[in-house]
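Workshop exercise sheet. Pairs work together: one partner reads the sequence aloud, the other fills in the structure field after running the prediction. Swap roles for the next sheet.
Pair: D.N. / O.F.
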Amino acid sequence: MSRKQTNDTILKEPIVWEAYRKTIVHFFPKFNRWLNKIEDKRDPWKIIYPKEYMIWIGMLLFICKLSYRRQIKYLFNTPEFIENINNFSSAFVGTVAHPDTVNYFFSKIPEKNIMRLKKKMIQGMLRSRRLDNYRLSGYYLVVLDGSGHLSFGERRHCEDCLSKTLEGGKTIYYHNIVEAKLVTEFGMVLSMGSEFVNNEGKQSDVQDCELAAAYRLLEKLKTDYPQLKICLLLDSLYANQNIFEIAEKNNWKYIINFKEGSIPTVAGEFRSLLKLEPESKKILKDIEFLQEFNWINDIDHEGHKVNYIKCVEKENSETTTYEWLTNFRIDGNNVDIVANKGGRQRWKIENQGFNMQKNGGYNLEHAYSTNPRAIKNFYLLMQIAHIINQLAEYGSLLKNIQKTFGSIKNIAACLLDELKHFRLQLEFKYDYSFYIKFNSS
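Structure field:
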């Protein structure tokens, strides 16, 4: 079917795809131009599927939450989908790419290209100031944390594999990842940077680890977002001199979940000084909820001044204690804000971030490829798809999600159905006829 015939038979655009189309156009009007600039390492004389086509296929694999690469062959193989993917990528091919062809493409594309695409998306959102309302005292909240990515059991997958010897002498091989994700109070978690924890072919007694990868990632964050005011939300692993120095050097803030065993001297000084400053106390209370805050500023730790917050929370019959280290100066006016709108947001990288990607249809722990480079590219495409999905789901174009679709999970199924059975157009021209607001309720 020719392009003209396709346009003559276009049906009314379905609600889910139209919301996605407008979301991409609204936030990333140069998206296809960015795809065009991606480096293609394939032999130009053997190319059947253009790079824009292949990247769209890779993104839709995760946007539609197909869970396995082979699903491309079975769920994308309709005349309507083929026409749609041609329209999206300005291609003219008559078949959907085989899953192995998709894998080959991403084994040839340097992962820095997909990283750069993700970076441009986040930079575009920051320049448009669409996330300004979700800052803490002018600082964007960025959670840094590591997660398991792939596990290969007792079989070494590649030279980059990490290894661990368990009790009994069994050795397992695996790949991990460290993520920097920008979070909002209403639940959006956007990947700003990704650093793979791997040995890069080094066969030595010293393996790569989460902390080493995190330091590399923080350096890249400063390079990619040099003027951005960042507040790092960290777990107790990061309560150390290096983090304090990095924050001071970059003029960043930090809020670190603190465990007394992390820096015993700081915890001990907090308890001692609290007896001398009983006025450093604030209580928030309603019918079923009580929070009691204590804080001390300027605790010295090897030349660094850190501020300590303790919160004892009572809700119904349960009591929970939270403690944080921060370089925000604390007083009675901001202690609850720094704790609740800052420190308490760190868990979002686990729930809306890693857990969603593991159990919400993205299948984070599945090996979409065995090629080391393709593994990284598929992971980065998953992050891009998650960004686009969140912008659509939290945006104002898909109203009453619960009532219309039953759940967010069903949106991906509806989108896939529309892509398979409707012929659609996609024009990447900024449209001033609508404005997307985030549903922050």
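Discussion prompt: Residues 356 and 362 are 8 Å apart (CA to CA). What would you look at next?
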